[in-house]
């Protein structure tokens, strides 16, 4: 069967792609060029990228689209998938490889329609407990973002800390979908998240806010190189 352009780009194994998942936008890069931060992080071992242009000072309109386009170019050059957070229209405009939406975002859309709209692209959905994870599976999610694993200063409206035990509870409850932990994850904290059953870790500040994003990403990718 002939694949669409998006499907052809993603014949790779999603569990492999989720290992070191960098999530960020310009507000997370400490005034540095996000493209340079992303490039360094990819060199360190980042396997998937989500453009999340959110928080104080986030770019809007054309500037936001232009930055997304530049970061998409970095990902294409490196051969890693590019996901857009929240903004369905931007994801379509940039021909992104996928979209990540949260529970609050999901409430705004017809779920069936959302899966159809991103047919052939990666659909990630956030889940905070096994019931939300089951609902995300029903919505046709390709992967889950489970969190917050630990305390985070990056997302002021994050739900209460769930801890790696939540991932173990999801796995024990029969959730076998590819899954990453997110929220306050450091290289030290990543081990418990992976041991609980995650395929990878999604990280904002510990990579994009690091003095050396390449070295930070390298530390996250170490458990996968053994
Ligand atoms: C991989 C991943 N997991 C969870 C989230 C959080 O999504 P959401 O709950 O919609 O919160 P915002 O990121 O939109 O503030 C994520 N972005 N990525
Ligand atoms: C987007 C998101 N969703 C749950 S916690 C969080 C923030 C993660 O950022 P950090 O890795 O800096 O704690
Ligand atoms: Mg969201």
UniProtKB/TrEMBL annotation:
- GO molecular function terms attached to this record: thiamine-phosphate diphosphorylase activity
Q: Which UniProt keywords apply?
A: Magnesium, Metal-binding, Thiamine biosynthesis, Transferase
Name its pathway.
Answer: Cofactor biosynthesis; thiamine diphosphate biosynthesis; thiamine phosphate from 4-amino-2-methyl-5-diphosphomethylpyrimidine and 4-methyl-5-(2-phosphoethyl)-thiazole: step 1/1
For the ligand (2-[(2R,5Z)-2-carboxy-4-methylthiazol-5(2H)-ylidene]ethyl phosphate), the binding residues are 152-154, 184, 204-205
* Gene3D superfamilies, sorted: Aldolase class I (3.20.20.70)
Provide the binding site for 4-amino-2-methyl-5-(diphosphooxymethyl)pyrimidine.
Answer: 50-54, 85, 126, 155
What cofactors are annotated for this protein? Mg(2+)
Record keyword Metal-binding present:
yes
Which InterPro entries has this protein been placed in?
Aldolase_TIM, ThiamineP_synth_sf, ThiamineP_synth_TenI, TMP_synthase
The entry's free-text remark on the cofactor is:
Binds 1 Mg(2+) ion per subunit.
Q: Which HAMAP family does the entry link to?
A: TMP_synthase
What function is annotated for this protein? Answer: Condenses 4-methyl-5-(beta-hydroxyethyl)thiazole monophosphate (THZ-P) and 2-methyl-4-amino-5-hydroxymethyl pyrimidine pyrophosphate (HMP-PP) to form thiamine monophosphate (TMP).
Q: Which family does it belong to?
A: Belongs to the thiamine-phosphate synthase family.
For this entry, the protein name equals Thiamine-phosphate synthase
Provide the gene name from the record. Answer: thiE
């Amino acid at each position: 069967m002939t694949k669409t352009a998006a499907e052809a780009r993603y014949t790779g194994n999603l569990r492999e792609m989720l290992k070191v998942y960098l999530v960020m936008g310009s507000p997370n890069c400490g005034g540095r060029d996000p493209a340079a931060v992303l490039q360094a992080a990819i060199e360190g071992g980042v396997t998937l990228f989500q453009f999340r242009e959110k928080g104080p000072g986030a770019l809007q309109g054309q500037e936001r689209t232009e930055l997304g386009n530049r970061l998409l170019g970095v990902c294409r050059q490196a051969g890693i998938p590019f996901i857009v957070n929240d903004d369905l229209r931007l994801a379509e405009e940039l021909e992104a490889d996928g979209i990540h939406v949260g529970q609050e975002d999901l409430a705004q859309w017809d779920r069936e329609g959302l899966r159809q709209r991103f047919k052939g692209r990666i659909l990630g959905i956030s889940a905070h407990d096994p019931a939300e994870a089951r609902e995300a599976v029903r919505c046709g999610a390709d992967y889950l973002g489970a969190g917050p694993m630990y305390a985070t200063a990056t997302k002021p409206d994050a739900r209460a800390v769930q801890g790696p035990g939540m991932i173990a509870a999801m796995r024990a409850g029969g959730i076998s979908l590819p899954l990453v932990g997110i929220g306050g994850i450091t290289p030290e904290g990543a081990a418990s998240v992976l041991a609980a059953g995650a395929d990878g870790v999604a990280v904002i500040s510990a990579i994009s806010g690091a003095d050396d994003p390449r070295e930070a990403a390298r530390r996250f990718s170490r458990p996968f190189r053994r």
